[in-house]
């Protein structure tokens, strides 16, 4: 032990006052009254003293010293402060841990002062000890102590650095701090504590919830706590309201909690009231923050809009009218009410009737007052001319009024413009002057932006933050469905581009062409691409620039951009170029599955497709450019057509991207919305099997259809009595499928148009010539197929319109119940109270349709056609649980397998709940193997692996399920997840209940885990192969449902040689493709000249695809190609193929290699014969060469004969009839 003075260095008196030096000396003297010792457990120096008076003296000295440096930033960074912190903390921790009643209050007060004055960086060395100590006192019976400890903890946690946050939060987790605080708040609700107690506890809880996502769901699940908080909604004390709002904001960072909160109408009303003008500004700001946190996704917004849409809009408008001095010219306070209101105003990006409410509340006037300074109300005066509007806007924009808000204002304005209806007249709700002036301001700013960004080299852009928002806003104005808005936007833009128009456009196209072909992109390059694409789209709407664009190289540049985007070569998310969209809520959120905005995550792809659609549209309209249109169509068809079809079908892309891809395809005669489900269902069109309706036109021609498909996709084609019966059907299945019902259509229905329309109904898309499109328009209009009509008329996609998809799940309800012709029945489950809406059967089941089942499953198709008893049964029993059956049926009708609970909901389930949710996917994985449902097998596999990855301890239970179902692939992955804990499982005897084979698998996985350095990844095992020869073949055998393949070649001895082997889990083309590509890689890209395989048909297709230079011969292919499969002579020839194969392949050297070389029995027999001959006979040497003698000793007879012949020809030198023997040295052959 030693005293504290031994660690102190001489004081550097520079930059600190004499008072601080004096108080520092007193502090040292007080600390020296205790003892300092080294704690080996914590590896730190600690202070101790049992004398209460000494402890009081130390606390007073610390308090005085902290007061002296308070408010002096230079003093807190001084050397004497830095060197004293460790000892001060040690003494304070010693006193707090002693929990002496008389000293706790003083010590906790000093702790608050310490963490509020000293930065966290100085406390870093002992910050974990400090938070643990304070946490232990958070529930102290001394209220003042608990308040101070909560306050101190809040200060520490609020100022944590990114490096220390995880360590500190783990320490707090170990102390169960959240549950202690929750208990304290519930005690306060009982009325026994003062308001300050709730304020500090609530503030600390909100801070912890903000930084510790795992705590949100458990806290929100405390029923008593949430009830206590709900009871405080009507409290008038502003400090309580403030803390309450902060707590709700932190809780709502979990999307599951946010959804749960919004379902409560009383809670939503409280949130809106908090934003009202009657509250203090700090409360209103926190109310806006809570609303923004709740409304991070459209689904939550729709719920809140339905509950209090008008009040929400009114609160935003009132907040945006708060234009105090603190938010003027660029010096905006980012915590201000105005900023929060503008951020919440971005709810205009979603479609809905709230846009009308914004106009009704005077949003035009509010936006104009925020864009222009000192704008006078001239609504009562005459309308200003365009020149006057431009002059007024130019003067005001130069003042940079509210420059920090411009990005939000342009976004709000653009969204309001694009979501107007076709017949909407904004002047009915707002002032024509205000709206026109706003459009003028946006266009002026946009033109300046275009001029700056159309140069290849530009570094003088000082307002990048508003470049994209204002450009986007002008584009939305130009393409607004409202004619008043779009026409005025084009008028202003055309006027401002008069002088600089063509030169700027050519410069823009040149820059676009240059940047589109860059090898790599910085953020500035991508922003430039976006601005130029938006500029091209905007200017292409003006007739005076369309010819210039069509005749330029803009199209090729745009096509290149789209191609690169679709190949993931370029990607640009909007928040990365619009920083105002990046908020702390998105960074701290958990469980938020926020759907993409309409334009998607890659805005370059979206604007590129928009530009391409504008180009094709303009070419088609200009009659004097028909040749140009034909050339453009040909070029796009060659470059992008297949990619556009894939884009439409991809569910990973946004609705806007898919809409524009479909719109472009309409110019190639392809109309509709292709998707994967339609590929199955389309096979049933006009097939008599399973058809229950025959549509007959006036000339007698007919088409066989399925009532359930029409009921969902095109009910207008069904008679009213059938639709009525489907709505009223309640008992069993009305057997329309047993007899064909005839439906005679109107005499006006054209047969060819009807067939094409049915193609759209079944397939989602169709190919049609222009003359047929005219007939289709009439029929589609009568059937009220609006999205389809939009493509037939080639109308530009409307912003925010959902992308149509073929989803038949509504057929499972009353719409398709009367067409049901079969029942899928699950294994008997103990489902209490389960009832069917259509029949009295109490066993869990689902009324389904054969036409849909057989379309998606070849197994069921074969079953229904087999003629067996099951094919005629109305009930098919499926050996899976009801939970699995629900998901199976959902997949059949939507091509989408529902996901299990995720995020916080999954993390907070107990093991039994997790297994209950996971078991249906294991069952589906098993069923999919028998029913040959590859896509559902893959989808269920991905779900299982993902869930096991987040809860690896469940692998022990899952591996048993998989083993019992013979799911060896799943057994393997579960064993890999169990590998790290093999020793613990073995030592705890948990493996005793496993079969020996399972234990061996887990043990093997643990060995691999150890060999790989503890890396339990799910990556595929690599295969190390070396090159020996050019000729290989691949037999196969099975091990745990895996394929073991070995590569065998022929060495220069003419003998079979094992070159390498591989284990693959699937026998699909992708697996074989991976195998051969990796094989080629391991062989140094030196491909084999020949390849033979045995009965591996997928292998054949793979080799043909990715190994075109490899010679491949397969007997079955030969027979199929020439149609001689039944020829007896050829069959006998095949039996003796080992004698003749070299004849048919003599144009390549196969080194006597045959596909029968893999026969183990024939190989052994041949070896025995060779060994007998070699043992009992000797072939004499032809020369006296020692080299030949070595070959004689090493080689087998057959091979030695070949060498001997070569030896005679090449090594013997003939000279005058005598043989001259050269001199050689012996070597090892």
UniProtKB/TrEMBL annotation:
Pathway in which the depicted protein is active: Protein modification; protein ubiquitination
Xref: SMART domains: BTB
InterPro entries on file: ARM-type_fold, ARM_At1g04390, At1g04390-like, BTB/POZ_dom, SKP1/BTB/POZ_sf
GO terms under cellular component: endomembrane system
Membrane topology term: Peripheral membrane protein
Pfam families (UniProt xref): ARM_6, BTB
UniProt superkingdom: Eukaryota
Gene3D superfamilies registered for this protein in UniProt: Potassium Channel Kv1.1, Chain A (3.30.710.10)
PROSITE patterns named among the record's database cross-references: BTB (PS50097)
Protein location: Endomembrane system
BTB domain boundaries: 691-770, 820-901
PANTHER family (alphabetical): BTB DOMAIN-CONTAINING PROTEIN, OS06G0674800 PROTEIN
Protein name: BTB domain-containing protein
């Amino acid at each position: 032990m030693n005293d504290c003075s031994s660690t102190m260095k001489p004081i550097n008196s520079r930059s600190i006052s004499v008072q601080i030096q004096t108080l520092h000396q007193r502090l040292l003297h007080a600390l020296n009254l205790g003892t300092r010792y080294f704690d080996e457990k914590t590896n730190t120096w600690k202070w101790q003293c049992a004398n209460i008076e000494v402890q009081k003296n130390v606390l007073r000295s610390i308090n005085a010293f902290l007061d002296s440096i308070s408010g002096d930033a230079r003093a807190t960074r001084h050397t004497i402060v830095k060197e004293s912190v460790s000892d001060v903390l040690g003494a304070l921790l010693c006193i707090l841990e002693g929990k002496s009643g008389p000293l706790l209050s003083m010590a906790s007060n000093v702790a608050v002062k310490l963490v509020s004055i000293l930065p966290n960086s100085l406390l870093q060395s002992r910050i974990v000890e400090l938070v643990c100590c304070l946490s232990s006192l958070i529930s102290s019976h001394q209220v003042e102590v608990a308040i101070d400890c909560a306050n101190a903890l809040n200060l520490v946690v609020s100022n944590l650095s990114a490096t220390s946050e995880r360590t500190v939060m783990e320490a707090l987790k170990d102390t169960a701090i959240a549950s202690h605080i929750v208990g304290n708040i519930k005690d306060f609700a009982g009325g026994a504590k003062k308001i300050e107690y709730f304020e500090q506890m609530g503030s600390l809880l909100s801070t912890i919830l903000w930084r510790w996502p795992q705590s949100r769901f458990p806290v929100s699940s405390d029923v008593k706590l949430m009830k206590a908080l709900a009871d405080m909604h009507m409290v008038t004390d502003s400090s309580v309201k403030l803390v309450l709002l902060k707590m709700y904001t932190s809780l709502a960072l979990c999307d599951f909690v946010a959804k749960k909160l919004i379902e409560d109408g009383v809670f939503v009303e409280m949130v809106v009231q908090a934003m009202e003008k009657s509250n203090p500004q700090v409360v209103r700001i926190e109310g806006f923050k809570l609303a923004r946190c709740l409304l991070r996704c459209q689904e939550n917004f729709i719920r809140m809009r339905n509950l209090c849409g008008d009040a929400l809009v009114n609160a935003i408008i009132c907040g945006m009218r708060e234009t105090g001095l603190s938010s003027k010219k660029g010096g905006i306070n980012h915590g201000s009410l105005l900023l929060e209101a503008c951020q919440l105003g971005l709810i205009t990006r979603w479609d809905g009737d709230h846009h009308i409410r914004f106009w009704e509340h005077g949003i035009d006037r509010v936006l104009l007052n925020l864009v222009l300074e000192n704008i006078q109300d001239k609504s009562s005066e005459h309308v200003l001319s365009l020149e006057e509007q431009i002059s007024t806007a130019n003067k005001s924009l130069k003042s940079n009024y509210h420059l920090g808000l411009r990005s939000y204002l342009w976004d709000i304005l653009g969204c309001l413009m694009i979501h107007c209806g076709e017949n909407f007249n904004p002047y009915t709700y707002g002032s024509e002057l205000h709206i026109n002036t706003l459009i003028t301001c946006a266009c002026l700013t946009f033109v300046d932006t275009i001029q700056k960004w159309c140069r290849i080299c530009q570094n003088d852009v000082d307002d990048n933050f508003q470049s994209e928002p204002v450009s986007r806003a002008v584009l939305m104005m130009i393409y607004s469905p409202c004619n008043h808005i779009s026409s005025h936007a084009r008028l202003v833009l055309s006027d401002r581009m008069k002088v600089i128009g063509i030169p700027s456009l050519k410069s823009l196209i040149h820059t676009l062409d240059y940047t589109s072909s860059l090898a790599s992109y910085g953020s500035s390059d991508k922003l430039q691409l976006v601005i130029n694409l938006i500029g091209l789209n905007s200017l292409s709407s003006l007739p005076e620039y369309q010819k210039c664009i069509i005749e330029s190289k803009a199209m090729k540049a745009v096509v290149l951009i789209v191609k690169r985007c679709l190949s993931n070569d370029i990607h640009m998310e909007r928040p990365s170029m619009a920083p105002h969209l990046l908020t702390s809520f998105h960074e701290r959120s958990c469980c938020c599955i926020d759907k993409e905005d309409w334009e998607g995550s890659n805005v370059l792809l979206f604007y590129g497709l928009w530009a391409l659609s504008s180009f094709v549209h303009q070419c088609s309209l200009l009659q004097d450019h028909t040749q140009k249109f034909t050339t453009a169509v040909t070029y796009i068809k060659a470059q992008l057509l297949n990619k556009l079809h894939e884009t439409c079908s991809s569910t990973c892309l946004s609705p806007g991207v898919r809409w524009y891809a479909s719109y472009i395809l309409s110019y190639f005669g392809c109309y509709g919305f292709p998707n994967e489900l339609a590929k199955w269902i389309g096979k049933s069109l006009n097939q008599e099997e399973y058809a229950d309706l025959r549509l007959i036109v006036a000339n007698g021609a007919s088409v066989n259809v399925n009532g359930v498909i029409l009921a969902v996709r095109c009910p207008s084609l069904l008679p009213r009595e059938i639709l009525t019966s489907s709505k009223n059907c309640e008992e069993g299945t009305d057997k329309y499928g047993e007899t064909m019902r005839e439906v005679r259509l109107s005499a006006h229905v054209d047969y060819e148009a009807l067939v094409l329309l049915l193609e759209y109904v079944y397939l989602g898309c169709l190919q049609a010539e222009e003359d047929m499109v005219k007939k289709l328009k009439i029929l589609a209009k009568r059937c009220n197929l609006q999205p389809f009509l939009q493509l037939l008329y080639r109308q530009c996609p409307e912003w925010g319109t959902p992308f149509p998809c073929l989803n038949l799940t509504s057929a499972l309800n009353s719409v398709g119940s009367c067409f049901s012709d079969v029942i899928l029945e699950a294994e008997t489950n103990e489902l209490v109270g389960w009832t069917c809406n259509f029949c009295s059967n109490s066993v869990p089941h689902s009324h389904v349709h054969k036409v849909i089942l057989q379309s998606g499953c070849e197994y069921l198709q074969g079953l229904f056609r087999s003629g067996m008893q099951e094919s005629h049964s109305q009930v098919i029993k499926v050996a899976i649980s009801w939970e699995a059956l629900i998901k199976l049926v959902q997949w059949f009708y939507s091509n989408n397998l529902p996901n299990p609970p995720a995020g916080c909901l999954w993390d907070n389930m107990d093991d039994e709940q997790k297994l209950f949710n996971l078991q249906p996917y294991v069952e589906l994985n098993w069923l999919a193997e028998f029913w040959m449902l590859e896509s559902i097998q893959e989808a269920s596999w991905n779900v299982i692996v993902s869930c096991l990855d987040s809860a690896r301890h469940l692998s022990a239970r899952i591996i048993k399920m998989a083993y019992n179902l013979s799911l060896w692939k799943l057994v393997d992955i579960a064993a890999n997840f169990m590998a790290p804990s093999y020793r613990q499982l073995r030592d705890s005897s948990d493996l005793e209940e496993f079969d020996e084979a399972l234990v061996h698998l887990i043990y093997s996985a643990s060995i691999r885990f150890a060999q790989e350095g503890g890396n339990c990844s799910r990556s595929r095992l690599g295969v190390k192969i070396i090159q020996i020869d050019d000729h290989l073949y691949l037999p196969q055998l099975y091990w745990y449902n895996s394929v073991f393949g070995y590569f065998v070649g022929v060495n220069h001895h003419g003998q079979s040689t094992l070159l390498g082997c591989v284990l693959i889990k699937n026998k699909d083309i992708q697996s074989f493709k991976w195998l051969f590509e990796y094989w080629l890689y391991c062989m140094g890209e030196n491909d084999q000249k020949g390849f033979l395989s045995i009965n591996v048909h997928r292998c054949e297709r793979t080799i043909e695809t990715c190994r075109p230079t490899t010679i491949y011969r397969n007997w079955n292919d030969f027979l199929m190609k020439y149609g001689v499969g039944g020829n007896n002579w050829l069959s006998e020839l095949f039996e003796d193929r080992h004698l003749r194969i070299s004849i048919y392949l003599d144009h390549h050297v196969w080194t006597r290699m045959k596909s029968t070389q893999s026969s183990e029995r024939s190989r052994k027999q041949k070896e025995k014969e060779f060994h007998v001959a070699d043992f009992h006979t000797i072939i004499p040497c032809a020369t006296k060469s020692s080299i030949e003698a070595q070959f004689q000793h090493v080689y087998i007879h057959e091979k030695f004969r070949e060498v001997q012949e070569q030896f005679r020809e090449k090594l013997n030198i003939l000279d005058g009839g005598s043989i001259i023997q050269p001199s050689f040295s012996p070597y090892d052959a």
